[in-house]
Amino acid sequence: MSLLQTAQFLDTVVRLEHLPKDDLPEIAFVGRSNAGKSSAINVLCERKRLAFASKTPGRTQALNLFNLRLPASAMEREDNDVADNVVPRKLVRESSGRLSETPRLTPVWIGRLVDTPGYGYAEAPIHTKSQWDRLAGSYLQARKNLRAVVLISDVRRGLTTLDEDLLRWVAPHIPVVMLLTKADKLTHQERLRAIKAMKAKIKAGELVRSEAMLQSLLFSATHRMGLDETRELIKVWLLGSAEAQQPESA
Ligand SMILES: Nc1nc2c(ncn2[C@@H]2O[C@H](COP(=O)(O)OP(=O)(O)OP(=O)(O)O)[C@@H](O)[C@H]2O)c(=O)[nH]1
Ligand SMILES: [Mg+2]
Question: Which of the listed residues 50, 54, 135 should we mutate to test ligand 1's pocket, taking the one with most ligand atoms within 8 A of CB?
């Protein structure tokens, strides 16, 4: 089982103060309405309906949180007796002085994916924009746990002005990967042109961000393109920061 396959729904949040008060690193999926954020989460996690995807733009209206655990391969013991991704049992002394065993199936959470509402849905009611600012926008600017951003952009549209605005919302020290999604809708030649144009744009520094903090990948949720590269990035972002949080072995 891979890291992203361990994803488990945690909560739907419509106010920032309801976000978990822990320090797990979070990776936010952001982008225009209907770009394919929820679909990307589902395919990366190998699940059909972990996040709700829909043809109707504006489907995701809240922050949806999915916790990730350490996969079995990362554990010291890989025998079948230890279910994937659990803390090995150990003896702990309770405040009463009594020795007791930790529960066998305590998951080791190492990070979280966050599905966000889309922006730029032309027919949305006027309040939607300020709603986005208040929730997703504020999340991107204020959330200390935010470790990286996956910006989902329809490869046929390229980077829109709204996407560029989005890049300005995200603090410069937060790395961003732009997934040029729905690449299945383009021919091979058109895809190559799109990715080349995007890379040139990044290199030319037109997007405010340095090359090191912004990269782009071709992606398709339906045709499973770009999955391995994206998963690898997520793994590095999370495990880079998770080492310190791993429990002591028994
Ligand atoms: N052909 C193709 N269709 C896709 C791809 N990714 C998503 N879609 C379709 O695009 C539509 C929108 O997908 P969602 O994943 O719901 O998009 P979203 O960005 O989460 O949308 P909101 O939550 O409304 O902001 C759905 O009909 C998906 O099936 C893709 O890679 N290729
Ligand atoms: Mg969605």
Answer: 54
